[in-house]
Amino acid sequence: MDLNREDAKLVLVNHGRVPFDPRPDGLLDVRWLESLDDGGIVTYSQWSGPAEVDGAVAYRRYRSGVMADPERPVGCVVLVEAEFDRPDVAEEWIDLVFAALADEEVPHPGGISATFHVSEDGMRMLNYAEWTSAEAHEDALARGNGAVGLSAVWQRVQSFPGLKGGGVRRYRVVGE
After folding, report:
1. What is the pLDDT of residues 39-62, one digit of tens each?
2. Fewest Cβ atoms nearer than 10 Å: which of 79, 95, 116, 167?
3. What residues contact residue 81 under an 8 Å CB cut-off, 6+ apart?
4. What confidence tens digit (pLDDT) does each residue in 51-90 have?
5. Cα angle vertex 53, ends 28, 174, to 5°?
6. How many CB atoms lie under 10 A from the CB of residue 17?
7. All domains of the chain, ordered by start, with CATH?
C-alpha cells in the first residue's frame, strides 16, 4: 500500500473488519491490521473522494516523513491517535512532532516512516507509523520517556496546549 498516493483524498479508519465485498466505487486500497495486544482488527482504507462507512472516522493525509531506509521490511504498524480541545491545532502539533524528529541527534534505528492524518472535523490526529518491530518501538518509547526521541522538543510535543489525550497501539498487517 502506498500511504502517500496522490489520488487518495480520504482515509477511513474503522475499528473492526470491513470486508468491502463487493468493492465500492472510489475505494483505492485497503489494509487490515490486527492488534498485537488484544487481536482486535482495524480497517485502514484509502478513497478517491467522499465516502461513508458506518463507524468510520474520516481523515485527510497531512504530512509524511521517512525516518530510515523505506525499503526495510515493516515488522509493526503503530497507530498513534491524539485528540485536541479545538479544531485547527492538529497541524501545528504535527509540525512540532516533525521539528522534534529533526532535532534528534541519533534517531532510533527502528523507525521507518510516519504518515500523519487530520480528521475532517480537525479535532483528531492519526499517525500511521511503520517500524521494524514492536520491540523497536517499545525500546524507543522507553528510551524517550514516552516519546520516540530524546530531544528537548519532545517535551513541548507532550505538553502541547490543546492536546486532550491520545493513545498508541501496535499492529501487524493481516491483509491487503
Report:
1. 999 999 999 999 989 999 999 999
2. 167
3. 124, 125, 126, 127, 166, 167, 168
4. 989 999 999 999 999 876 778 899 999 999 999 999 989 9
5. 60
6. 15
7. 10-175 (3.30.70.100)
